[in-house]
Amino acid sequence: MNLLERLRGGLVASCQPVDDGPMDRPEIVAAMAQAAVAGGAAGLRIEGVENLRATRPHVDVPIIAIVKRDLPDSPVRITTTIADARALIEAGADIVAYDATPRPRTDARDDILAAIIAGGALAMADCATRADAEAALAGGAAIVGTTLSGYTAETEGKGDGPDLDLIRAFRDLGGFVMAEGRIDTPELAAQAMRAGADAVTVGSALTRLEIVTGRFAHAVRDAK
Ligand SMILES: CC(=O)N[C@H](C=O)[C@@H](O)[C@H](O)[C@H](O)COP(=O)(O)O
Description:
about 220 residues; binds N-acetylmannosamine-6-phosphate; TIM Barrel; alpha/beta; RibuloseP-bd_barrel; eight-stranded parallel beta barrel; single chain
């Protein structure tokens, strides 16, 4: 079965610990990934070459990989260079995701997309708008994700939950639709599927223990 068919109808667990927190270590990321697969994840999203190298030998589900970098003069963070895309493919990424918004970053968006495809991986476009997805699909991206909706100047203030309208807008474009971003409960994941997603990626609600704990801690504190 090809990679997209393996992901279709499934959950992707994004194993990205809180930056510089106690769980931000390759062996812990690899353990989270194996636990997620044991729980039924059809795929994984992994950040960083070291974390990918630590995880790849232990799982055989498709891995969507990214490198995040803080740039001095751009808010774009996700796979901002051709070199990062190539390093991820070399470390075993099946799919490389990149920031598909038109915002400037180190290397041009379309050159990063072309490098992913030339390297033999599938490309996942992390989009904020329908226009981002259209441009990505025209350039050969296999997957369009709603990942960046709510995280750009144009889309900020999108609310708490997932961008179901953007999922619906992607449905007719012809690519594989990944719902991603602020999907914090199984019910929201189901809603994203019903809105037309081919698969759903969940991160913080599964693998950022500080965030999940904080939600419970607040609820308990404010209960009475
Ligand atoms: C906007 C951005 O940088 N998103 C990142 C992309 O990799 C991650 O920080 C998110 O955790 C991931 O997209 C999953 O989303 P959520 O954690 O909401 O389930």
